[in-house]
Design goal:
The structure holds 2 protein chains of 2 kinds. By secondary structure, chain A is an alpha+beta fold. In chain A, 52% of the residues lie in helices and 13% in strands. Chain A has 16 helices and 13 strands. In chain A, strand 7 and strand 8 form a beta hairpin. The longest helix of chain A has 28 residues. The two termini of chain A are 33 Å apart. Chain B is of the alpha+beta class. Chain B has 2 helices and 1 strand, in the order ααβ. The longest helix of chain B is centred in the middle third of the chain and has 11 residues. In chain B, 37% of the residues are buried. Classes of the chains: A alpha+beta, B alpha+beta.
Chain lengths: 479, 52
Amino acid sequence: MPPGAASAEADPFHFFWRDTSIVQPRYEKAGTALVAVRDTLERERSLCQGVDEFLDLYRVLAEADPADFDAVWRDPYAYFWARLAFELTRAARRRAPVPALARAYATAQGCGDAAAALAMHLREFQRLVLGACLRAGRDCAFRTPLEVQLPLALPGTRWSLAGNRRVAVLGCAGGRLRLHGEESPVRLVECPVIEVHGLELLLQPHVHNLPGLGFYREESDAGFEVQSKHAHLLEAALRVVARHDPDSFAQLGRFIRMISLQTRDPETYTNMTHSDLPGTVLITVVQHPFYVADALIHELHHHRLFFLEEIGPFLDGPRDDLEGQGRHLSPWRADLRPLHGILHGAYVFIATTRFWLQVLAAGEGIDERTHVLARSRVVGGVLQLRIALHQLARHARLTAFGAALVRQIESDLAALRTRVEAEGLSPETPFVRCHLDGTIEVAKNPDGVGAWTLHEQLRTHVLRFAPPDQAEDILRNAL
Amino acid sequence: MEDDKLDLRRLEKDERVRRLVEALEGDDGDRESGASEASFVPQFPASGSKNW
């Protein structure tokens, strides 16, 4: 077991599902990565351009009040910056391979090699310094302007510089940003904030507007209109989580600080959590609070698993990494997936299936369409989890840490199956879709006769998307 | 329970920094040399597809 995971053996349920002591080490790790980059660059000032200015900016952040540093360093952008800085420094220093996201980032910035990308990235440290200075009410002036595409979220704050143009930021003064070509400092706008049962969350889509990430969309809210318009839906969803999954609700604020509501094409909509932006999620607006509650619990647990995985890897083979090629059927997606993705799916679907069972058990106050949706999600969840765990058992080479996690998930699935049987739910339960407008549709059997059962729907999924050897194995042993 | 405040001055003295520097500055070109701290979680966007 890796250091930090000792209690995974003593009390695996608590460790994998409830323990929040896993939060702090990840932010500390990003902080130590920042210090290591500083130490290395102090010794190798010619590694790339802009090192001296970065070292000056580092001192500004180091001299910030710890409360301001803490707020800035828990911002999703800080981990993103620290990890990329570490990987680009290593790549530039050791001529090591540049990881995929760093490559995408460098390409998006027009940088041809790791040293050029590192030079560009060191300037981006100005974002963090701006956040700390704005929080402290201090002015700052940069030697080299920070060139960014708006909107720009200011780390550690609720503020953004709105718009959709490219600007050169010279620093900040009087709580505003000084821009090249603008006589007066520019006013910042505050993102919407919601509060439910003492949990406060920022509705901040601009944090995703980063080079190389590729999932910020302009129509998703330069001026927070989408966030404001749908804030009530999110509040309703949070109340659903608080009522039906209080354990998840109690953790939400530790793992998620910002939410970006998105309105998407009905055929492609997704929710999303990025490994390198801890604390923020993209949630698609679906006009059904229970469906959004499911999405929140789902994304919360992706984050939880990223925090767990920062302690040590789950899979023994790099071929199975999410950065690698997909080779295995996932019960949740049409594309073949690395085993790592299937493991993530198994973990988060245990949490969401548990939630829907709680909804079913609640009885009063749950309308019929929500009941229909809940039954489908519970039965579908259990069937999908059986396939996922079968795929992992058959193909995955796990570390001791990963094996402990999978044992816990297997135990959780066994408990869920017992409860599903007690509810009298069968695999012949209809497959139900929830549309963006919140309407519920019982899927028709493609043969045109009656409802499409979850068993049949998953059988069709396996036959359509699995490689032949996996399809035969799954249908014989897991469905 | 809330976490302690993160403090950059305290992190500068953290033992993990030395191992991370080793990982940055090692000369053997081996991605895994240095320390386990030098490896981060696999990078990816975890996305949920429609209706699942």
